[in-house]
Amino acid sequence: MATEIGEPVKVMALFDPDIKPVKFRWHERVYPVKDVTYTWRSSEGEADIVHFSVTDGASVYELSYNKKTMKWRLEQVE
Amino acid sequence: MAAPRVIMHIDMNAFFASVEQQRNPNLRGKPVAVIGSAERTVVTTASYEARARGVKTGMSKYEAREKCPDIILVAGDSGRYVDTSIRILGILKEFSPKVEVYSIDEAFLDVTGCLSGFASPEEMAIRIKERIRGELGLRCSIGIAPNKLLAKLASDMQKPDGLVTIGEERIGAVLEDLPVEELWGIGSNLKAHLNGMGIRTCGELGRYPVYTLRKRFGIIGDRLSRMGRGEDDSPVVPDGEEEEAKSVGHSTTLPFDIADPDLIRQYLLMLSEMVGCRARRYGLRGRCVALTVRYSDFFTFSRQKNIPVYTNETHRIYQAILSILDSIRLRKAVRLLGVRISSLAGEPFQEMLFEEDRKMEWALAAMDRINGRFGEFKITWADIIEGRRRTLCHPSGVIPPSWRPDR
Fold this sequence. Notes:
Radius of gyration of chain A: 12 Å
Low-confidence stretches of chain A: none
Order of helices and strands of chain A: EEEEEEEE
Shape of chain B: globular
Strand order of the largest sheet of chain A: 1-8-7-6-5
Radius of gyration of chain B: 24 Å
Strand content of chain A: over 45%
Oligomer: heterodimer
Number of helices of chain B: 15
C-alpha cells in the first residue's frame, strides 16, 4: 500500500512545453526519475496541480506540481 | 428512408484497476483490486487477473482476500480517474462531435457522417483504440451497431480489448438465443418477470404479443418488444446537451457506524454545504429536501419535505434536514447519510426582501468565491470545523454512475 508523505521537495524538471521531472531530492537523498508512468491533473481552488507517478526503478513516487505557487510536493511513496 | 446510423459504444476495460496498473508498473500482470480509502470499503474495480481468481466488484476487502490471498489492494483516487476520463473524451471528440458520456468509463459515439477518411467503422474504432492505448496506456472494448442498445451489447461480447460489430444482417441471429438479461436495461427483477411469462431469450421477447407485454408492464411493454428485436431509436445525446438536472445530492458512507446525534448532525451540515455549494455554482434552487439514511444492517430509507421557498442556502437546507431527522426515530447506528434537493428551478430568482436574508446570500457568495479560489472547505461553518476536531471525515471521492464532466 502507498504511504502518504505530503512534503515539499526539490525537483529538477524539463519544461518543454510539457513538464517532465528528471530527479528530485528528498531528505538529502537524490532520486533519479527513470520513467514517468502516469500523469493527471487536479485543481485546488484556482490552482492547477499536475500529478506525476514516477519510478526510480525500485519504488513508485507521486510528485505534484502546483502551477500557481510553482511548488513541488512528494505526495506518496509505494 | 434515412441511412442507418453507425453507433459505437466504448467501454474502458477494468478502468480504475487499469489506470493503477499503468501508473504503477509493479502492479502489471498481478491481481489488483481498487478500493475506497475508508476502512469499511468495498472493491470498486478488480483487474482481469483478480477477476480470474473470483474477485468481483462490491466484495468487501476481506471477501476479496479470501478469494485471492495475494490480491493487491490499492486505494483509489477519484481525481485520477476523472482526469483520465476527460482525456479519453477529448480523444473521442476528435472522431465525432456526438459523444454521449454514459458513465466515467463508458461513452457512446454517433459516427454517422464522420467516416470519410476511414475505410470502415472498424478502421475508425481501431484508430480510437490505438489513440487511447498510445496516449494513456489503457485498453477498451468497442461495439459497433446501428443503435445504442446493440452497440452496448456488442462491446460486452468481447472483453478485454474487444471490437465487435453487429451489422443489420446479423441482428436476428445474434438475438435469437441471447438471454434477455444480456440486454442493456433488463435487470434481475425484469428478467424474473419475463422468465415468469415464459420469455427467456431476446428472440422470444421480440415475438411475444406486444398487447400482453403492454398489459403487464405498461408503457415499457412496447419498448421491451422493440428491444427483443434489437430496435432502439434513442439518440446519442452529446456531452453538454443532456437534460437539466432533476436533483442535486451528496451522500457518504461514514468511517464507522454512528449513533451520536451531534456527529450525525455535523455530517448532515457538511453534506448540506456540499449540496448548497454545488446548487449555487449551477444557479439552481430546490423546494424539496430529502434525507437518506442507511443503518448498519444496510436497511436504507429516504424521507423528504417541501419547504416554502426555493433555496440553495446551506443553512435552510440543513434546517429542513434537521426537521426531517427530528421526525424519525433512528433505530440503529447509521452507516450512510445523504442529502438531496429536488423540484429545482434555475435563475433568475427574485431578490430577497429582507436585509438579513440578503446578507446571508452575500456571505454565502463570498464563501463560495474564497473556496473557489483556495479550495473547498477552506472557509466553512464552525460546526464542521468543530466536527473535524473530533472524527468528522470529508466524504471520500466516490464517483456516482451519473458522473458527467464539469463544465
